[in-house]
Structure formats: structure tokens, C-alpha cells
């Protein structure tokens, strides 16, 4: 159920896009509303000391996180070099490292709150990625993953795609040791945040 076709170009498409990504029409139509929704969910629950954004792109979400929580330590991870160059230019408040969700360049358990927005469907090994996020969350830390989710019948038709139903997203989180507390729809019925917390010791 969770297997996916390998797509080598998943990272390569974002390197050339890096220089124009911030000016793309899709920012206002999709990414900005998604960022607003994840921040709304987060601000009502947390005041984190540290935030990680996985698949951070140009750092746009982290800049908004900085506006909300100026004292919070911010880290962004992305495999696309050009995206990170733009992120570093525009977001001096954050630290950025090249890496993927499946192999986060972080020690165990430093992170209070992790975000990932409209990136998960690009990850090659999604189960390993969620386990990695669980590994770097401190006990009690939370992961807000916003991405496309599809009705079960459509997932079944698109077998072996990297798009999942809400139930499949919940299963991925639970297999990684994250307790799912909510899965609100945002922006449209095809975009959802899965919110999961690592059990406290
Ligand atoms: C559509 S962009 C979204 C960027 C950002 N999260 C935002 O909301 O603007 C998807 C990002 O996921 C990154 N990505 C691709 N494969 C990834 C992986 N395996 N792990 C983490 N990020 C990945 C891409 O390089 C790209 O920057």
C-alpha cells in the first residue's frame, strides 16, 4: 500500500525552479494558504523553542514562523541546492542544511515542532521519512505534515502513487510512533494536515 514508483527528477525539478520559485503564481494560490493554515494550527497549540521545516524550499514558511515566534531556533532541510541558496539569502534568521526527509542531518530529539508543506509526495521512501521525523522530535514534540490526500477509491485507482488517503497517512504516522491527534482539511478537500505527537517518555 505504501510503495511508490522511484522518480529521480523529484529533486532536479526544484533546482532550476529555485531562482523564480518565490515569484510563482502558485505561492498565492497554494503555498501561502497552506502556510497560513499550518501556522494557525500550530499557534493555537505551541510556543516551540525549536522548529524544523523538511522540504523547506525557499524558506518562505520559516520566515512566517519567525514573525510569529522571533525567539525560536529555526532549521530548514531540503535536497535542492538552488532552493537552499535562495532560502539562505532571504532567511538569515534560520539555519539551512542540504538533506532529505529520509535521512535528516540531525541528532536524535532536538526538535519541538516539525513542519512539512506540499513536499511529502516527492519523498522516495515516505515511511522512512516519517520515522526520521519521529527520531528527531523530542518526546512530546509534534509533526504537522500538510500535503495532498485523496479519497480511498482514487488512491486505489492510482496504485503505487505517493498520494495517500487520510487513513494511510494516519497509519504511516502511527507506524513511526506518532499519535495522530487531528487531520483537518485545509484549502480544499484534497489538502490536509496530519498532526502527530511523539509519546512523552
Ligand atoms: C513544492 S516544494 C514546497 C516547498 C516548501 N515546503 C513550501 O511550502 O513552499 C517541494 C520541496 O520538497 C523538496 N523535496 C523533494 N524531495 C524531497 C525529500 N525526499 N525530502 C525532503 N524534501 C524534498 C523539494 O526540493 C522542494 O523544495
What's the CATH topology label? Answer: Rossmann fold
Provide the CATH architecture. 3-Layer(aba) Sandwich
In percent terms, what proportion of residues is strand? 25-35%
**Average residue-wise pLDDT:** 91
Number of strands: 8
Q: Oligomeric state of the chains?
A: single chain
**First-last Cα distance:** 31 Å
Helix content: 25-40%
Q: Rg to the nearest angstrom? A: 16 Å
Which spans have pLDDT < 50 for at least 5 consecutive residues?
1-7
Computed structural class: alpha/beta
Keywords: Methyltransferase, S-adenosyl-L-methionine, Transferase
GO molecular function: S-adenosylmethionine-dependent methyltransferase activity
Protein name: Methyltransferase type 11 domain-containing protein
Organism: Ktedonospora formicarum
Structural account:
This protein has 201 residues and is of the alpha/beta class. It has one domain: Vaccinia Virus protein VP39 (Rossmann fold, 3-Layer(aba) Sandwich). It contains 8 helices and 8 strands; from the N terminus they run αααβαβαββαβααβββ. It has helices spanning 9-12, 14-17, 25-43, 60-68, 81-90, 126-136, 152-157, 166-175; strands at residues 50-54, 73-78, 94-98, 111-117, 137-148, 178-182, 185-186, 188-198. Strands 1, 2, 3, 4, 5, 6, 7 and 8 form an 8-stranded mixed β-sheet that branches. Helix 4 links the parallel strand 1 and strand 2. Helix 3 packs parallel to helix 4. It is globular. It starts with 8 loop residues before the first helix and ends with a strand. Bound molecules: S-adenosylmethionine (SAM). S-adenosylmethionine binds at residues 10-11, 14, 31, 54-57, 60-61, 78-80, 83, 100-102, 117-119, 122-124.
Amino acid at each position: 500500500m505504501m510503495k511508490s514508483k522511484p522518480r529521480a527528477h523529484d529533486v532536479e525539478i526544484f533546482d532550476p525552479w529555485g531562482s523564480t520559485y518565490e515569484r510563482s503564481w502558485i505561492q498565492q494560490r497554494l503555498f501561502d494558504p497552506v502556510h497560513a493554515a499550518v501556522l494557525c494550527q500550530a499557534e493555537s497549540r505551541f510556543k516551540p523553542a525549536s522548529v524544523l521545516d523538511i522540504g523547506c524550499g525557499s524558506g518562505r514558511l520559516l520566515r512566517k514562523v519567525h514573525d510569529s515566534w522571533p525567539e525560536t531556533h529555526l532549521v530548514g532541510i531540503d535536497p535542492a541546492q538552488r532552493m537552499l541558496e535562495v532560502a539562505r539569502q532571504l532567511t538569515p534568521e534560520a539555519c539551512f542544511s542540504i538533506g532529505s526527509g529520509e535521512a535528516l542531518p540531525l541528532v536524535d530529539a532536538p526538535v519541538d515542532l516539525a513542519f512539512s508543506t506540499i513536499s511529502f509526495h516527492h519523498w522516495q521512501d515516505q515511511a522512512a521519512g516519517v520515522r526520521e521525523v519521529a527520531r528527531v522530535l523530542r518526546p512530546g514534540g509534534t509533526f504537522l505534515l500538510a500535503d495532498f490526500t485523496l479519497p480511498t477509491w482514487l488512491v486505489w485507482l492510482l496504485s503505487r502513487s505517493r498520494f495517500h488517503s487520510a487513513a494511510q497517512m494516519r497509519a504511516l504516522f502511527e507506524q513511526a510512533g506518532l499519535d495522530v491527534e487531528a487531520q483537518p482539511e485545509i484549502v480544499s478537500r484534497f489538502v490536509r494536515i496530519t498532526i502527530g505527537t511523539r509519546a512523552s517518555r
